[in-house]
Design goal:
Helix content: 25-40%
Distance between the termini: 15 Å
Number of helices: 11
CATH topology of the largest domain: Rossmann fold
Length: about 375
């Protein structure tokens, strides 16, 4: 969890119901091969990466070591998985560390890459190579647990990579909404899964945004030995208050806009959702991940950059490397601040950008532990 740990009471019925309904979205059978890269202690992997394939008679492969590239690449070549479940950070690292640099290292290619038609062609070629890297038989690459970077998703679409995004929580066993690769919609988690009700409670009249509420057979019994906390999130008529902000389009596809528990109250009472600002920051070159918090009434962005790529680009034997890089970092941080502030509303303006030298501490599913930095 990204906050204080709580015991979530899930029943046998909760989990099995969710696995059965997940199988409706992406049917699997005895011919499918799952390659597990996430911890089974997480409901996402336990329900959809263990129970679901067992229901279909599929084979599940487990790694002997943590899923580093040196372990994962040969495993994918050997297993040739048809299904993999991951979190956004895995694909984001592949894109920003391996794929994007191949298009931006050479000046001519970098110029051509800016032309939409050529960029799509390049992405299609890169997509074929990526597909082969994953074993060449993948039909479902599930992404969940956090919001996927928009630039990465655009690449996956143009690369024709068989990805799909889902949404859910531990308290909901976990899946609430999802799609398969054939009907994925950009920036959306897809519609509510079968026999689960989703509503936007008290939506904003202008934007349609509001808290996502869920009801159905996969909702938890409550928090272990915490009746007061349970009563805060479960209504008398069975609705679970997710604490997430979202909206539906005309076709019933759900879009996640942020988390109410992460919401920052602006100086004039505005509601600021840091995830929306972070998604913009993460599209900036060299940025791997970011975190927006409030300090003394001002918004501050902490950014962790790809220092290896930064050093490659700006290393100069004729100059002192340390001094040169420090100067370039300062220039980049100021450029990043201008880049973000030109794309957000006045009350979401970033007052300061701070370089985070090491990766942020994360949960088992690679979400940033926000409470450590608040």
């Amino acid at each position: 969890t990204t906050g204080r740990s709580k015991g979530v009471m899930l029943t046998h019925r909760n989990i099995c119901f969710n696995a059965v309904k997940g199988k409706v979205i992406q049917p699997v059978d005895e011919n499918d091969r799952f390659l597990s890269v996430l911890p089974l202690s997480h409901t996402y992997e336990n329900t959809l990466g263990l129970i679901l394939p067992l229901l279909g008679g599929s084979c599940i492969y487990y790694l002997r070591k943590p899923p580093t590239p040196s372990v994962l690449i040969p495993a994918m070549a050997e297993v040739k998985p048809t299904v993999m479940l991951t979190v956004p950070l895995i694909m984001e690292k592949i894109y920003f560390n391996k794929i994007l640099p191949t298009f931006t290292e050479k000046k001519l290619l970098k110029l051509l890459y800016r032309i939409p038609f050529i960029r799509k062609k390049l992405h299609a070629v890169a997509g074929k190579k990526l597909y082969k890297t994953f074993g060449g038989h993948l039909k479902f690459f599930g992404i969940g647990g956090a919001k996927l970077n928009k630039a990465v998703e655009k690449f996956l679409i143009e690369a024709r990579f068989p990805y799909a995004i889902g949404y859910g929580l531990t308290e909901t066993s976990p899946l609430l909404a999802g799609a398969n690769p054939a009907n994925s919609v950009f920036d959306s988690t897809g519609p509510a899964i079968q026999d689960i009700e989703l509503i936007i409670n008290d939506p904003d009249q202008k934007t349609g945004e509001g808290e996502i509420w869920a009801r159905g057979a996969s909702i938890m019994k409550g928090y272990y030995k915490e009746p007061e906390l349970t009563s805060e999130v479960l209504t008398h008529d069975g609705w679970f208050k997710t604490g997430d902000l979202g909206l539906f389009d005309s076709k019933g596809n759900l879009y996640i806009k942020g988390s109410l528990k992460n919401m920052i109250l602006g100086s004039s009472g505005e509601n600021i959702y840091p995830e929306e600002i972070e998604s913009i920051i993460n599209n900036f070159r060299f940025v791997i991940e970011s975190l927006v918090i409030q300090q003394k009434g001002k918004l501050v962005a902490y950014v962790h950059m790809n220092m290896e790529e930064l050093e490659k680009k700006y290393y100069d034997f004729k100059d002192d490397m340390t001094r040169q890089l420090e100067q370039k970092k300062e220039e980049l941080l100021l450029e990043l601040q201008r880049y973000v502030n030109a794309r957000v509303s006045k009350f979401c303006q970033i007052n300061k950008v701070v370089l985070q030298p090491v990766p942020f501490q994360k949960t088992a599913t690679l979400k940033i532990k926000r409470y450590l930095y608040a």
